[in-house]
Amino acid sequence: MSYEIMRVTTKGQLTIPVAIRKKLNIREGDYLQVHLEKNEIRLKKIEPIRPLGPEDPIWRLVGAGASGQKDISVNHDRYLAEGEINRWKK
């Protein structure tokens, strides 16, 4: 296993080596998850979530639950926005 040594700045920043950034396709604006395990810091690239397409089989389950709301797939974003509005009003 190969490794590289990096220097931490006064602000606690470090530069991920170019070879690692290229291998993981890490670009400016990407997000990394930071996890502390014993005396190790582990970084993991967070992949963006792809929106579900209309052909995704999950949509067949909409309305199958106790609520019976069959319009969730159509009004999902509106329901989320209303939930956030109500949460901030409290």
Extended strand count: 2
Mean pLDDT: 82
Are there runs of 5+ residues with pLDDT below 50, and where? none
The proportion of residues in beta strands is 5-15%
Helix content estimate: 25-40%
- CATH domain class name of the largest domain: Mainly Beta
Topology:
Blueprint: H1 18-24, E1 32-37, E2 40-45, H2 72-89
Antiparallel strand pairs: 1-2
Q: How would you sum up this structure, described in words?
A:
The chain has 90 residues and is of the alpha+beta class. It has 2 domains: 1-48, Ribbon (Pemi-like Protein 1, Chain: D); 57-89, no CATH class. The chain has 2 helices and 2 strands; from the N terminus they run H-E-E-H. It has helices at residues 18-24, 72-89, and strands spanning 32-37, 40-45. A two-stranded antiparallel ribbon has the order 1-2. The chain is elongated and about 55 Å long. It starts with 17 loop residues before the first helix and ends with a helix. The mean pLDDT is 82.
Short description:
This protein is α+β, with helices and mostly antiparallel strands and 90 residues long. The protein contains two helices and two strands, in the order H-E-E-H.
